[in-house]
Structure of Peroxisomal membrane protein 11C:
Amino acid sequence: MQNSLESLVNVLESYRGRDKVIRTLCYGSQLVGGVLSEKPGLSSAQLGKSLLLFSAQLSHCRTVLRLFDDLSMLTYSQSYGLGAGEEDSALRWMSVLNNVADQLYYPCEHIAWAADAKIISAKSDKWWLLSGILWGVSLLLGVFRSMRVVVLLRMKLRKSTRGVSSEGTVASRSQLRRQVQGEVLSILSSMADLSNAIHWMPPGFLWAGRFPNWLVGLMGTTSSLIGLIQMGASQAVSA
């Protein structure tokens, strides 16, 4: 119990960890709230409405916190540059385009937020749409990138199985398999988020506007839990 509490505190003390926890609570509340709001009975409907309002506040909280993400994203983009360290050209250019989409996403969202908050005189609709499109492009590029990584890792696995087995090669294969599993989880997470990104597009585009609250919450909760699992796995490896 004490170890679990310490692990939670360690997660909450970091910005990324806290954001993942808030995100999970946000979508989890939307999932439960969406289910309860559709159930008959006044008490269930009221509790469902309260959870949906709580989810909206957490989402707003994350939007405000992202006001400070531009510099960290810029630093990462500059350190990656044109991906000179990447051996695969397709992987390199997908990563560069992904970084560009992510970098442009933040100012668009900031303008939309500022317009809604009446800080600036502008219509927020087009800026929310633009930020949603950039998020969707980023997610789609992330899916393609992870798929490419899985292909490259499987090629390495096939080559390693043809050689003479030793303790080192067995450990290497195990590490490659873990990397493949991690990329598959990333694909599932991005696909779940992409389904929500399309839902928030203007009506008439694929399934835009057709998801009930509980389905949006389900997709977001799935993605969030995968993110927490991956964060826990990376911390275990670094430890």
Summary: Helices lie at 2-13, 15-37, 42-65, 70-80, 89-116, 125-162, 167-199, 213-238. The mean pLDDT is 91.
